[in-house]
Every structure is written in C-alpha cells, then in structure tokens.
Design goal:
362 residues; alpha/beta; 434 Repressor (Amino-terminal Domain); Rossmann fold; 4-stranded parallel sheet; disordered N terminus
C-alpha cells in the first residue's frame, strides 16, 4: 500500500519517522567528530601517555567518545596492551558439587573488588574441553588463570597454563613450584578432635575415608596431634576405614559400640549422617551416649540433622578469594608454594560435656 499525494499517512514500506538505527559507533566517526585522525583516536583510547597529543586534542576526542557513546573493541584493546581485565577460572566439576559455586563466588567477589571480571569454564574433566577453554582465555589475554578441582587432590598442570600466571585452587602439583591454595586438612582434623576433647571425651574414634587423598592423611594427622597435645594415648584400634558416604557411617556403628567409645570424629558429614542412623537403630542417642563431629559443613546435612551436627567447614569461598589475591600479587606468595587456608569450626548440638557417672553406692 502507498500513500496518496499530500496524505500524512506513511507508506507501509517507508521506515517509521524518528527511528534511529542502533549500531555501534565506529572509531572513524569519533575521529570525524573530533576533527582528528583515526590513529589519534586509537592513541587516546589506549591511553598512550607518551604520544605527542595536546591536551586540547585529547579533550576533543574524549568529548566525542562521550557524546557518541563509543565503546572500544575490548579484544582489540587487549591485543594492543597485552593484557585485559579478565581472570580465567577453569574447573573440572566444581559447579555440580554440594559446594556449588562457593569457590567461584569467592573468586568472583575478590576479582570484582579489584576491577576484574571472571571468565569461567566448567570442563567436567574433559581434557579437550579443558585445552580449548585455556586456549580461549589466553586469546583474550586474561590477567591469569585459576585452575581448580572439586575436591582437594594432586593435579596434573596443563602445559598451556605456563603461558600465563596461574594459581592452583583446591589442588596442588607435586615436584612443581606452582602456587597453590588448599584447605589446611591437618588443622581441620585437629580442630574437629579438639571439639570432643574440650567437652571431656577421651575415648574418641576416628572414621577415616577409604579413598587415598590429602584429606585422609591430613585429618588423621590432625586427630593424632590433638590427642597427643591432650595427653591421650593414640589407639590405632579406634581408627576405622569407612566408605565416605552414609552407608559407610552406618556400617561402622557396630565397631564403635563394641569399642566402647564416647565420641567419634567422622571424615565427612555424610558419614556422620550414617552414624546417626546406626546409633538410632541400636537405641543409642546423640550426644548423651556418643558425641559426633563431622567435616565439610554441608549445610543441607549438618544443620538439619537432629540434633544439628557439630562439624568443621571446608573454606571454599576463602579458597577462591585467596587464589585471586595471590594471582594479583596482593598477598605474599607462600615460601613452599602452597598456601593453606584454615578450616573453621562450626559447633552445634551433637556434642555435650562428658560427665562421669557417680558410683552406684553413693
């Protein structure tokens, strides 16, 4: 349909009046508005202070940029400067764990605080995907890369990481000078055992995991150190290996009862949940008959058991934040390359003061 001559009605094929076409402003348009060359605009945009450009010219260019709403091409700018305001984070399965997002959130908050944005790649342990993610981050000239695993373990450092600054988070590399940020497993095991010692318990069992890991070795060492400091002899018969899940804790209860322990430190909160089930099954109560301490502070478990579980938290948020600070040089690098983060105690109601029973003839 077309309009009749003199009609104010526009034809359907005509563009609507007062419509502005939205597209990015180009550097050439800025140059024309400021009456300078494109090269001059580029020097001002990239803040080349040593360029011979007068103050008035710089002001004209900046005014034109502001009025026209020009946004520099970030990737091109990164290529010129050799760096960007991005920090990469490559993780194997961190977004699907019970602690989903805590390391990411800690890193993201700390990065943002210092003017950086986090680029995140969750590779699910897929090696080709991991290589592609690191390659993409290097192309974007990231300031550096955090390389993280979903549980504390030894990691193989991808060769491509050596092309930039990097920090390992929740993992470490053997025979390497790579910087790493990990939980202090020994301190955590010691703190968990000390909760029970402070409440008067001396016959304390430890349900350790069957899985070889820094957590298995570190928490056992912490348990032994706490006993030694309190003058309690270490009894290897009170250390049990249990599958690190609810069924493992449930299966261990018979041994705990037979050993006559008054308290148990569990490798993780899922094991503790199984201990709750097993003790209830044999008619024993927590903490009156046996006090229980877990590890991890999985909120969905620990805070909602009855009674709520005393535990030691894994410091995932602080791991992410510390990784960024180390990467940016805001914290001093650890002497041996590994920064250990304290695991905080979370006391709830699964532990009570142990009181000796009065003799029957009193």
């Amino acid at each position: 349909m077309t309009t009749q001559k003199g009609s104010s009605q526009p034809a359907e094929s005509d563009p609507p009046p007062n419509t502005t076409r939205h597209r990015p402003t180009t550097m050439r348009e800025v140059a024309e508005a400021a009456a300078v060359s494109v090269a001059t605009v580029s020097l001002v945009v990239n803040n080349k202070k040593d360029a011979r450009i007068g103050a008035d010219t710089r002001k004209r260019v900046r005014d034109a940029i502001r009025v026209l709403g020009y946004r520099p091409n970030a990737l091109a700018k990164n290529l010129v400067s050799g760096s960007s305001r991005f920090i990469g984070l490559v993780a194997d399965a961190i977004a699907t764990t019970p602690f989903a997002g805590q390391i990411i959130r800690g890193a993201q908050d700390e990065a943002w605080k210092h003017g950086y944005v986090l680029l995140i790649a969750n590779t699910e342990g897929n090696e080709p995907a991991e290589k592609e993610a690191i390659s993409m981050m290097l192309e974007h000239k990231v300031r550096g890369i955090l390389y993280s695993t979903w549980y504390h373990r030894v990691a193989q450092v991808p060769a491509a990481l050596n092309e930039t600054d990097f920090v390992l988070v929740n993992c470490f590399a053997r025979d390497s000078d790579a910087w790493a940020v990990v939980p202090d497993e020994v301190q955590g095991g010691r703190a968990a055992t000390e909760i029970l010692i402070r409440h008067g318990h001396r016959r304390i069992a430890f349900l350790n995991t069957t899985t070889p890991s820094p957590a298995r070795d570190g928490r056992l060492q912490g348990y032994r150190e706490a006993l030694e400091s309190a003058g309690i002899p270490f009894d290897p018969n009170l250390v049990f290996d249990a599958y690190p899940d609810q069924e493992g804790g449930y299966a261990a209860v018979e041994g705990l009862v037979q050993c006559g322990v008054t308290a148990v430190f569990c490798h993780n909160d899922r094991v503790a949940m199984g201990v709750y089930d097993g003790l209830r099954q044999v008619g024993m109560s927590i903490p009156e008959d046996i006090a229980v301490v877990g590890f991890d502070n999985q909120e969905v478990i620990a805070a909602h058991l009855r009674p709520p579980l005393s535990t030691v938290a894994l410091p995932h948020y602080r791991l992410g934040a510390a990784g960024v600070r180390l990467l940016l040089g805001l914290d001093e690098a650890p002497g041996n390359g590994v920064l250990r983060i304290v695991c905080p105690v979370v006391e709830r109601d699964s532990v009570s003061t142990r009181q000796e029973k009065a003799p029957a003839n009193m």
